[in-house]
Design a protein that fits this description.
By secondary structure, this protein is an alpha/beta fold. It is 38% helix and 18% strand.
Length: 359
C-alpha cells in the first residue's frame, strides 16, 4: 500500500470513531488504533503490517460477536476491516514486494505490536511408502516432512525449507521461478481454527536456505546432463565438490525426478515434488504408507500413473505434453498440514479447537 492510502485509512478511522463517540479509544479499540499507527511508521504498508491490523480487528470482533448492524462502533471497525482486507489481498508490487519480511521477520515484529509471542511450531514427520511397479519388486521410500507453522492475522503460514545451489549463473532465477510456481498452485486453501473467527488463508512459503545451513531442509539438485562424468558418486561429494561439478553441467528436462532431484524446467513435476514435501505419498502403485493421516485406499493410491485427476498421480505437463491436462489438488493433500496446524493449536493452549480446511 502507499503512504497516501495509509493516511486516508487513518483519517477515515479517526472520523468514524468520532462519529461513534469514541475519539479516545481504549481496550481492543486502542489495540486497533496502535496497529493502524504502526502500519506505515513501522511496517511501510507491508502485508505483515496489514495482517497485524486484521488480527487486532479479529480480536475485537471476537468480543463483540453479535452487535446491531446500526451500532456506530461496529460500523467503524467493519469499514476499516474491509479496507484492510482489500489491500492485503491486492496483488500490487507495493504490497507484495515489501511482504518479503512476512515469512522472515514476522515473529519478532508481530510481537512488538501484539505484546504476546506465539512462537512458530516446528514439526517433522517421518513418512514411508511401499511402492511396486508392474513386474518389479516391492520398494520402500522414506522421507521427512518438516513444516514450520505460525499464525498471522488473516494468514496461517506454513514454511517449508529447501536448499538449491548447483552453481552457475541461473540458480537464483530458477529458485524464484520454482517458488512462484509452487506457491501459486498450492496457496488455494483456507483454514478454520474453530475459534469463531473467519477462516484464514493457508499460505505456504517455500524458503530457500544455504545448503550448509544447520537447520533441517530438503536438499534439491537439478536433473542434469553432465559435460563429463563426475569424479565420484554425487552422494559422496561434499558441498564444495558438488557445487564445483554442477558448475560444469547443464540443467535439463526428462523422466525420473524425485523428491531430491528436480526437473527444474517442468513446472508440474516441481509442483508434484512439493506435494511430497508437505506430507503426501504418491498415488500410483503405492501398496501402503506410514505416518500419513489420510486412510489408505487402493482405489486412490494403487492406480497406474497418469490416469487420475490428482497432482500426486498425474504430472502430464499441459504446455509440453500434447496439451494433456495434469492433476489437481484434492482436500486429502492437506491432511498432514492439517495435523500440523492441530498440533500448533494444542501447543498454544487451544487443544479443544477443531481444524477445518476448505478449498
Amino acid at each position: 500500500m502507499t503512504f497516501q492510502e495509509c493516511e486516508k485509512m487513518r483519517a477515515k478511522w479517526a472520523a468514524d470513531l468520532k462519529a461513534a463517540g469514541k475519539p479516545t479509544p481504549s481496550g481492543k479499540l486502542l489495540d486497533i488504533s496502535d496497529a493502524l499507527g504502526a502500519l506505515w511508521s513501522t511496517y511501510q504498508g507491508s502485508k505483515l503490517g496489514l495482517s497485524i491490523l486484521l488480527e487486532m480487528i479479529d480480536r475485537w470482533h471476537a468480543d463483540n460477536a453479535s452487535p446491531s448492524s446500526t451500532d456506530k462502533t461496529w460500523l467503524a471497525v467493519t469499514a476499516l476491516e474491509r479496507w484492510a482486507t482489500t489491500l492485503v489481498h491486492k496483488s500490487s508490487a507495493a504490497v507484495n514486494a515489501r511482504g518479503a519480511d512476512f515469512g522472515q521477520k514476522v515473529v519478532s515484529q508481530r510481537a512488538a505490536v501484539l505484546k504476546t509471542v506465539r512462537l512458530p511450531l516446528k514439526v517433522c514427520y517421518a513418512i514411508r511408502q511401499k511402492q511396486q511397479w508392474p513386474s518389479e519388486r516391492l520398494k520402500t521410500f522414506s522421507w521427512d516432512t518438516y513444516l514450520e507453522v505460525s499464525e498471522h492475522g488473516p494468514v496461517m503460514l506454513v514454511r517449508v525449507f529447501a536448499a538449491y545451489d548447483p552453481g552457475g549463473p541461473h540458480s537464483q532465477a530458477i529458485q524464484q521461478s520454482m517458488k512462484n510456481v509452487i506457491e501459486s498452485f498450492w496457496n488455494v486453501a483456507r483454514v478454520n481454527l474453530g475459534d469463531g473467527r473467519k477462516a484464514r488463508d493457508l499460505q505456504f512459503d517455500l524458503t530457500w536456505v544455504d545448503p550448509s545451513a544447520g537447520a533441517y531442509h530438503q536438499r534439491i539438485v537439478p536433473k542434469t546432463t553432465p559435460i563429463g562424468p563426475p569424479p565420484k558418486p554425487l552422494d559422496q561429494m561434499n558441498a564444495a565438490e558438488l557445487k564445483s561439478w554442477r558448475d560444469q553441467v547443464s540443467e535439463t528436462r526428462g523422466g525420473g525426478a524425485s523428491l531430491s532431484t528436480w526437473d527444474v524446467e517442468d513446472r508440474v513435476e516441481v509442483i508434484h515434488e512439493f506435494g511430497h514435501m508437505i506430507g503426501n505419498p504418491d498415488e500410483y502403485y503405492v501398496k501402503s504408507f506410514e505416518n500419513v493421516p489420510t486412510p489408505y485406499r487402493a482405489d486412490i493410491y494403487d492406480k497406474p500413473g497418469f490416469t487420475t485427476d490428482s497432482i500426486m498421480n498425474n504430472t502430464d505437463n499441459y504446455d509440453k505434453n500434447n496439451n494433456k491436462s495434469y492433476g489437481k489438488i484434492h482436500l486429502r493433500h492437506f491432511d498432514t498440514v492439517k495435523r500440523a496446524v492441530q498440533e500448533y493449536l494444542s501447543n498454544t493452549g487451544r487443544s479443544g479447537n477443531t481444524v477445518t480446511i476448505t478449498l
